[in-house]
Amino acid sequence: MYEQQKTHVCRLEVNLNALIFNLNYYKQKLPKNTKFIAMVKAFSYGSGDYEIAKTLQAQSVDYLGVAYADEGIELREKGITMPIIVMNSTPSDYDNLLKYKLEPEIYSLDTLRNFGEIASLHSTEKQNIHIKLDTGMHRLGFMEEEIPKMLAYLKNCENLCVKSIFSHLAVSDELHQDAFTEQQIALFDNWSKQIIDQLNYPVLRHILNSSGIERFPNYGFDMVRLGLGLYGVNATNTSVLKTVNTLKTRILQVKKIKQGETIGYCRNGKAGENTTIAILAIGYADGFLRKLGNGAYKVLVNGKFCPTIGNISMDMSAIDISGVSAKAGDEVIIFGDEHPVFDIAEKLQTITYEIFTNISARVKRVYILS
Q1: What's the average model confidence in pLDDT over 161-170?
Q2: Which end of the chain is more exposed for a tag (fewer CB within 10 A), N or C?
């Protein structure tokens, strides 16, 4: 076990053994030669950057995926040498992409021309790019009518190499919208074949995300992009994956509150009878959001569920531990194996992505690898 140098007692335990297990779970669902892009954007979905990337590099993942150039640069400066795709690069990033050997997603004619010009000015080597097609997600990506102009430019640009063509599924985790997913896959197959036929050299294709791998493994093409599933959450049977992230804190103080007294800001917490409360070293600045206060959520203390009481503060929160044996220093589980992250996401009416990525940078990450 090792950890970042932080003293805050609130911590996120990241089980790297579970991460490796989850990676191998998805690998066995696909043909052996399928390549993998592991998504480590947004601080690896809140789990940390270098430690996750280093583990994945040791597992011989083919690519890492980041959202922005800064994320890729930080990984390079910390010693990560494997290929990295930058999904949301802009022309202001292109010099650094070349400098740090990062490969951009190209999603429009403007980005294609801009990167081609920068590459021709600053490098004599061919630069890998990844072409994104918009098959229905309607975020970034080339529309069908833009493909001829994109191909015309590529044919006359000797310093760019299309390493992969990809698209993004919008509803691969929603069974009732499978017809739309099948439509996206069909469009991608058709458009990407047309492009590759014109380029006359091998190009990787990928469209599946984590839920896509789970539900549509026959459409793995050459490569897949594994994101949330890597961190222990999938769209179907959650029991098949191992919990990677466990958010914990400790009790700072235990006190008795008399009937009728109030707890916390705005006096929203009220003791209906004599009550024992515990003050926790976690607040909304750590990612334990304010909406979870006033009994909306329960945490685990010595194997017992205890509800929040009163408003959650920036740095602290209170729970009702009446009838539970607990003392200052005892460990408290916010979410983890015994208290799945789905529980907190459901209470907040959101998705697990948001829970993970809301965990503050001041929360100490502790990495477990045996």
Answers
A1: 98
A2: C
